[in-house]
Each structure stands twice: as structure tokens, then as C-alpha cells.
Design goal:
Length: 702
Amino acid sequence: PKSADNSIRLKSLNANTDIATLARKVVEECRLIHPSKLPEVEQLLFYLLNRKKSGNDKREKHSPRDLAPFEGMELDEEANINRIDHYVELLYEDIPEKVRGATLILHLARNPDNLEELLQNETALGALARVLREDWKQSVDLATTIIYVFFCFSSFSQFHGQVTHYKIGALCMNIIEHELKRYDLWQDELQKKAKEHEKAFKKYQGLLIKQEQLLQVALHLLLNLAEDTRTELKMRNKNIVHTLVKTLDREDEELLVLVVSFLKKLSIFLENKNDMAETYAVEKLARLLPCKHEDLLNTTLRLLLNLSFDTGLRSQMVQAGLIPKLSALLADESQRQLCVCILYHISVDDRFKSMFAYTDCIPQLMKMLFDCGESPMDPELISFCINLAANKRNAQVICEGNGLKMLMKRGLKLKDVLTMKMIRNVSQHDGPTKNLFIDYVGDLAAQTGVQEREEYVIECLGTLANLTIPDLDWELVLKEYNLVPFLKDHLKPGSAEDDLILEVVIMIGTVSMDDSCAAMMAKSGIISALIELLNSQQEDDEFVCQIVYVFYQMVFHQATRDVIIKDTQAPAYLIDLMHDKNAEIRKVCDNTLDIIAEYDEEWGRKIQSEKFRWHNYQWLEMVDNRAMGDDGEPFMYGDDGEPFMHNGDILERPDLFYSAGTEESRNTQQRLNLFYSAGTEGSRNTQQRLNLFYSAGTAGGR
């Protein structure tokens, strides 16, 4: 059987509608509804009206930011959806009528309830798109109004397809580009008309207001369409970033909020971020800070935060003078979090750390830290402070007044790892700040003897290890807090995390600067424990370097020198490490072995022999490389293809030996110097140099 359902579409239902009259009209026109159902129809209409209101409220909360009405939108009549055909006819008249027709349609489009019905009227939308495409250069008001109509559709994702169908986005890009060029021409004309400046300026101001309204509507529409990343990519291909950055020169705050918001959305993609770097967007954004417009300030800071993840853009921020500007904004509680995050990113680079000392940044940060009391601190805040403390001048500012005292109080009382990490960074700097720690040595040493979290003990021990203070009695500290057993127990591989073991090694190196402490270490058997640790951690350069440094400190003292040289195989390990790939390890090894060679003849001969063997190996390897070309053929010809000897005898070419003029002669002279140079000063004798001459290294020699 045929269905008896019938849909009734209401063309208009708003607060001004007479529900009773409309209900009677529905019953009269629909023969399927019995007149007795009139009260139910009225009730349904009330329900629909209330549902629309609540729906509008929700839509307003979640829809993109609406544009404020602008000059030229006023009408002397109320737009009616039933007269849409008449409004479309106006689009075929002259420019004033076209503007009026477009404005009437805009008034309808500003009501979301009318959008679906307008969308079904392809004639209206087609006419609007055609007029915009053909006449936008003739009237700014016309272009602004029509784009505004399509903007109303673009505010809802489900209508984006229809807006794209009429190619409104591409047209808006062209219009914006044209208007920016016009703006440049206006600027030039304004400068030329210096004599008539006041009159020209008033005209310019009027044109500028209309142009900025047009730009605002067009950019807002593009921002809505950019919700689809494929559409956004098309915009990028049309240089949307360059266009937006150029628009940052404007003064209108509402337009700037829109432009910065658009750039913020684009900045999450690498290609767009690179475009912003090329166009020096940061320099133009710096001009906007600080500003009284809350939305503009907040949006600009969020964009800068996105850009601050890039090293090159952070450099641009520093060059644009953003460090003092952002430091001043820390006083604004509503923007503080964003400023801290941006400044934290800048502080990651060592080149810029020192610049913070010459602003009001550090005192404000210290106040923010102490205002936290015993409650947890924001991770961005304490991380920023940790970075700043790694700079010597910053550390001095941090310690001014009761800065260090307050930090130590918080760190020790709350067992706060991050606060202790900041303190540890402060302690690494030589100078007056290091001496301030003498009062806290006992408190720090006491943290190692109790069952604390490992990461907390690492920071306390690391701070102690940094305190290379001549006046500090380390022997008393070691005895009073019974640290030697603790240090020895934590040298065993696997006894703790590698980070803690490494700090123990560094601590031993620090206390070994003291003669009596070094003797205590030697008697406790720590040297053999260090050698065992060296065997297990030989692939870790940091471990190797620190252990070798401990040996270097210990060979300075008579008691520990004899233990290292006579009772351990430490010198043999040092000889093996002489030629390590790491330059720092080689340097510490050479210095330590030089001291050992000076005090022990037997090891001195072994060290000398190994150095000669290494030099000899390097010489033979160089000869092999010089003797063979890239293709494996002997190196018999020069760069110009001529034989080096010119069919002569080498003994008849003394210039090879004595001339310093050509590169070949300099290389030869350097090779001769290798033959005759002494390996360690005052230690190589003639017989050893002869051994170097006659050793059989190359196949040719053998």
C-alpha cells in the first residue's frame, strides 16, 4: 500500500512567527491533517521553535568565530527567504543594485537556519559566484559582501564542498594578492603627496578600512576551508604563508588576530614553518609584543611557541629582541605559562643563556619558584631554571640574596630531584658561587648515607663532586659521614644505575686532589675496584675518561703513586688507552703516563717503547698511502702528468730537501722531520731513532 506520510517544509520559523496562524495554515494546506489536530500542530511548532533556539545556542558555542557586521551591511528592509528570486535578479543589474541584492542574501545567510535552503538554490549561488568572479575589481563593497555570504557557508564543515565547487577559495587568494599590491601602491602615493598629506591621508584611511574588511572576510573564509589538509596544501602552493606574513604589517587588531591565528594553524607543518623562517615572520611578530589586545597577544605567543621548536627560528627570536620582551611579560599571569615555555626553548641553546642575566627574568623566576612553597612546581618552570643555572653569570644572579639558601632548603626538605639538579648546575661554576656551598657540604653528604631515591642521590653526589674548593677538608667529610665504604660499594658493576656509579667515580676524582684522601682511597682498595670497573665499562668513553682522571689525580701523591705503579696494572691499561679514538681520553692518558715515566724508570722505558712503536706504525702507514695512488698504481707522476724525477737521479735534486717553496718540498721536509723528531722531550736517544730508520715495515722494505 502507498505510504500516507507527507513532509511539510516551513520556510520561516523564528521568534516573530505567529504560531497559531501558522498552525491553522498548515492544517488548511495539508488535507491529511484533521482540523481537530490543530492544538497538536501548534504544540509541534512550539517544540520546533525551541529546538532551533537551543540548536542555535550550541552552534554558536562550537562554530568558528563569527565576523562582526561592518559598514555597508545596513538595510532599510528586512530580508525574506521567500523573495530570494527577486534578490538574485538584482545581481544582473548595475553595481549598486548588485551590492543591494548581495547584501539582502547576506542577511539571509547570516541566519544558519536559512543555509540549507539557500544551498539548494543553485541559481542564487551560481549568480553570486559569477558576479564575484567578474566584478570584484569594480567594487570592494560588492566583493566583501559576496565573500561574506560564502563565509557563512564555510563556517560549517558540511558545506565546504559546495564552497569549493564554485572555486571561491582560489578566487579569494587572487583577491587578497591584488589588494596587498594595491596597498603598496597607496603607500607609495601617500609618500609622494607630502604637500597634500592631510587630504590624501583621509582618503587613504577610508580606502584602508574597506580593504581590511575585505581581507578579513576573505582570510576568514580561507581559514575555515583550511580545515581540510588537502585544501590547505593547495593554499600553500599559492604562497599563502608569504601572503599572511606580508599582512602582518597592518595595524587593524582584528585582522591581525585572524592572520596570526591562520599562521598558527599552518605552523604545525614543517614546510609552512620553513616558509615562515624564509619570510622572517618572527621579526614582524616581535612588533606585536607587548600589546593591549588580549586575544592578539595570546595568539601571537602561541604561534611563537610553535615556531620556537626550530633552532634557526629561535635565533631569529633572539635577534628580534624577544628575550627582554618575553621576560617582561612574565609579570602577566594570564600569559606567563606561554612565555616560560618559549623562553625555555630559547634557553636550550648555550649561545643565548647569558642574555637572560641582563633582563629581569631570573629574579621573577626565583619569585615564582618560592611562591610555590611546598607544592609541586610546573615542570616547564623548573626546567627553564635548570637550563639557566648552567651559565656562570646566571648562577651568580640566582645566588644573590638568599637565593641559594632558599633553593637548598626546598631541595633538601622536599627531596626534590629537579631543584637539586638546578643546585648541581649552579655548583659547577668556579668563582664566588662555589664557595657558598661550603655551608651545605655536610647536608649534601648526609643524603648519601640514607635510603633515598637513586636519582636524588645522584644530584646530591654530583653537587659534592663539583666542589673543587681548596679550603674544603675532604678528609673530615669522608670520615664523619663514612663515605669511603659507600663509594667503594657503589663501584661494583651492576651495584647501581650507571649514572650513580659514574657520579661516584667523579666524586673519587674530586676528593683525590687531597693527599690524605687519596691515601684513604688507596688503602681501601678502591684502585683495584676502579680497574675492574674500567674493564666492564671500556666501551663507555665518559666512564673511561673519569677513571683515568682519578689515576691522574692519584699519581700526584707519593703514597698513591707507589700503589698505582707497583701494586696495580693501571699503567698497562693507560698504555693501551694512549691511542684511544677519544681526544680527551688520549690527553689525560698522556699526562698521567708522563708523570709515571718521570718517577719509574722501568715503566718509563715501556711507555717510551710503546710511543715509538706507535709513531713507527703511523710512519709506515703514511708511506704506504703515499706510495700508492687511488687506482693502486705507484705514485710516480705529478698532477700535470710529468714524472717527479724527470728521468733524473734523486741525489741530483737537492731542492727537494732544502726548498720550502713547493708543496712537494714541504711534504718531504715534514717527512724528514718525522725521522729526526724526538717523541717525548728529552727521552729519545740516537739508537732509538736509528731503530726507526731500519725497521722493516712495508713489503718493499722487507
